[in-house]
Amino acid sequence: MTPLLISLGASLGGGLFFFGVVLALRSRRDMQRRLAVALPAEGASVVDDEEQQSFLSRLLSDVGAWVADTFGASADAGATTKDNSDSEQLLSAAGWRGPRAVALYAGARMGLALSLAFIAVMGALVSGSELSQASQYGACGGFLGYFIPRFVVGSRANKRRLFITRTLPDVVDMFVLCVEAGLGLNAAMKRVGDERSRYPDDVMGRELSLMNYQLASGRTREDAFLELGRRNDADDLKAFSSFMVQSDKLGTNIADALRVFANESRSRRKQMAQEAANKAAVKLLFPLVLFIFPTMFLVILGPAIMKLQAAMP
Fold first, then answer.
1. What residues have CB less than 8 Å from 150, skipping those under 6 apart?
2. How far apart are CA 94 and CA 156, in angstroms?
3. How many beta carbons lie within 10 A of that of residue 165, not counting itself?
4. What is the pLDDT of residue 31?
């Protein structure tokens, strides 16, 4: 009974602690809302307007900001900055951007780790385990909860990169059509972005709309292209951005350059499809060995084994 009371008291204290952190950071959050630079909504999955965020989102983002400020000040500043930069790059590649995206991500990792640790400890104590064994279960649950959000964000980022790789040749073909029809490069980007933005799930449409917003805000075309490749962290999109910057600097024919790049991108896409098809045979080997072959042996050899057992004295 004593370990159960200790666990309940610890969980209650932890809850009161986090609510105290939220109340203490309310004034800090108001100041950040005034000073935050508003980003365009295209391509962002994190809502920057605090009034439109749920209570859980505000709680996790405040906890993440507090953890970064508290432990980042006592840790190595260079390592902390690098970790924040890596998290920001990963979230940007997954399409989750905004001034509070990194804080929300850190708070989600911390909150899920504490929740799974508490569930594991309580489940172990209820089942009759000792406190030392329950603490081990809690450590495993916390470790698992801390790395689950990174796995989810990384999986989303990989799917997004794959979608960009598959759709980039079609986008470049649309650029070629617009440029050959007499439009300038900026006008072609705006036209292609507007056309592809009609589909809500089109990643390239949102990215081109964000790029058009940056151009309209006064950024140079070179910076906009380089930023397009950097924030998505896709190799093909980085190659496209560098290709467009070089073509713009050298003054080559944009239509011919885009046509060459479209052919190369389509060839890479075909090679990726062939590589995935060649890997399919190897990937099917494990399900065959583990699931299909035992069933076949049971169906084929089962009656023979039964008859043999019946014939034996």
1. 90, 109
2. 5
3. 17
4. 46
Question: For 224-252, b where at least 16 C-beta lie within 10 A, e where not — what string?
Answer: bbbbbbebbbbebbbbbbebbbebbeeee
User: DSSP letter at 52?
Assistant: G
Distance, CA of 16 to chain centre? 31
Please give the Cα distance from 186 to 192 (Å, whole number): 10
Q: Crossing angle of helices 131-180/101-126, nearest 10°?
A: 150
Confidence of residue 20 (pLDDT cuts 50, 70, 90): low
Contact by Cβ (8 Å): 164, 236: yes
Q: List, for residues 169-202, the tens digit of each pLDDT value.
A: 888 888 888 888 888 888 888 888 888 888 877 8
**Sole residue written with tokens 């809502």:** 47
| Closest listed residue to residue 18, CA positions, set 134, 137, 141, 110 | 110
How high is the pLDDT of residue 186?
A: 85
Distance CA 108, CA 267 (A): 40
Q: How far apart are CA 109 and CA 102, in angstroms?
A: 11
CA distances from 113 to 88, 139, 247 (A): 20, 9, 49
pLDDT digits 0-9 by tens, 286-312: 888 888 878 888 888 888 888 888 887
| Dihedral sign from CA coordinates of 127, 128, 131, 136 | negative
Q: How far is CA 57 from CA 62, 97, 100, 167, 289, in A?
A: 8, 14, 10, 32, 45
